[in-house]
Amino acid sequence: MSDVLTQLQSRYQNLAQLSFAETDSGLVMVTINNDFASAAVCLHGAHVCAFQPRGQQPLLWLSKDVEFKPGKAIRGGVPVCWPWFGPHPTNSDLPQHGFARNQVWQLSDAMQLVDGATELLLTLNDTEASRQVWPHAFELALKITVAKQLTMELMSTNTGDRAMTVGGALHSYFEVASIAQTRVRGLDQVSYDDKVADQQGIIQRGDIIVDEEVDRVYLDTLATCLIQDEGNQRVIAVAKEGSRTTVVWNPWIDKAAAMVDFNDEGYQTMVCIEAVNAGDDCHTLLPGQSHCLTQTIYLVD
Ligand SMILES: O=P(O)(O)OC[C@H]1O[C@@H](O)[C@H](O)[C@@H](O)[C@@H]1O
User: The pTM is what?
Assistant: First the structure.
């Protein structure tokens, strides 16, 4: 057992809602169980791997071929993409979706709230290595509240002495019974860039139906999306704040097959709805300033 695991178990021994374990590769996983839901959070990437309201099916999709490896992003759940979304704008040698999802975060605080929900605070600060990739002093904090709904608040703070510009995403993978019986509502009439067709400024007409590879950047939208998961007879709501960009992604057959950590059939039971800061929706923070990107997911009653 690693020192980190022993320390966490001792520090939170009185918080019965939490338990700690390690993957074979040494990543620390926090499991949360309360009256409302269960969840699992990996300290590697501050990655929510699972969320399941009591008596319900899981809301988040995790690849059956997921790899828990130091330095590698976890396939499924909610990767935290930061401080940029997608490829780095000027240097293709830098990692896609930034570096935060490949770092080990600290569990800075955990508590039971008065209503019985659980709150975790995970933090990541700049290091010598991060400053070589991205030359800024920062604190990144992810507050995760596990209740009937799952709320993730990603707070970026400039702790340095010059301006920094942050983009990123809460890149949530949702589980559906069958993508053929799924619709995504909430983006009707919104303009989007289609990364598959390499076309800009297309207008969404009606609901989104995923019957091919979909990789779309919806612009200037604050909308709550509703995933109508007919096969499970449920509707998952995905609400957000601090983001005017929503990405909808499903890799479909060929791209799923090309990813070693994405099981070949997995595209049939998932869709990503991502709360994003990208393009002109990035935020320039002066010293001491912060930006908060929030995503909340829940089942519609
Ligand atoms: O494989 P990654 O780096 O986790 O990215 C997955 C997908 O993430 C989405 O957000 C992008 O729009 C896609 O283009 C990308 O393929």
Answer: 0.98
| Residue 60 Cβ < 6 Å to ligand 1 | no
* Catalytic (active-site) positions: 171, 274
Residue of 78, 49, 76 lying closest to 266 (CA atoms): 76
Cβ proximity of 125 and 105 under 8 Å? no
Please determine, for the modelled complex, whether the ipTM score is greater than 0.85.
yes
Count other Cβ atoms within 10 Å, centred on residue 80: 26
- Residue 97 near residue 84 (C-beta atoms within 8 A): yes
Instruction: Dump pLDDT digits (tens) for 149-178.
Output: 999 999 999 999 999 999 999 999 999 999
CA of 86 to the centre of ligand 1 (A): 7
Question: 249: CA distance to ligand 1 center in Å?
Answer: 7
Contact 79, 47 (CB under 8 A): yes
CATH 3.40.50.1820 fits 3-299, yes or no: no
